Amino acid sequence: MTIPAPPRSAPAEEAAKPLRRLTGVAALVASVAVVVIVLGLAAWFRGEANQLAGSAAASNDALVDAGTTTQVCGQVREAVQRVFSYDFARLDDDERAAAEVITGPFAESFHQQFARVRELAPAQQAVVVATVPALAVKVLEGDRAVVVVFLDQQAHQGGQAKPVQAFGRLAVTAQRVNGSWKIDEAEPF
Questions:
Q1: How far apart are CA 147 and CA 76, in angstroms?
Q2: Cα–Cα distance for residue pair 108/43, rounded to 1 Å
């Protein structure tokens, strides 16, 4: 009597076991790689966010506070035009108007320079009109702003038909005093 041999598994079943094992290992390796990549990207993004949050631009309200930036622009434009304009026939009025929009160290400097205008302007019958064709708030921090101002002036003198024109740039530091932005410092550059 012969004993029947145990049934042998088909060759396809034997080949499927190592293939399933290989697929499981590949899936595990792929999962670990994805986790490592995600953690790496998370660390990199966090570093970039921290770098941006600590930058000077992040603390500059001129980049994010449109309302205050617009207010600074309007008031500094008007102040610069007042300070750098005068009419020989109305020097007292012009000095008073300018005094309303200046403060700090600039006030003393302005009054010293305006004393020289008082000496020269009447004899020359000088009328100077200042305009601000462009300006931009560079820094806005609380009650202090730094504004880049482009200034044009036309000087008319008695007896001359053609006005003299001058163009310049100013770095104006403005200070908010009782809700109004006033010139605290103005430096040409």
A1: 8
A2: 54
Give the residue with greater pLDDT, 43 vs 17.
Answer: 43
Residues 6 or more apart whose CB falls under 8 angstroms from that of 149 comprise: 76, 77, 80, 132, 134, 135, 169, 170, 171, 172, 186
Helices 66-83 and 91-99 cross at an angle (nearest 10°) of 150
**pLDDT averaged over the chain?**
88
- pLDDT exceeds cutoff 90 at 186: yes
| Mode of pairing for the β-strands spanning 86-87 and 127-141 | antiparallel
How many Å apart are CA 120 and CA 126, to the nearest integer? 8
Which amino acid makes up residue 175? Q
Q: Please, what's the largest Cα pairwise distance for the chain?
A: 143
- Put simply, whether the predicted model's pTM sits higher than 0.90 gets the answer no
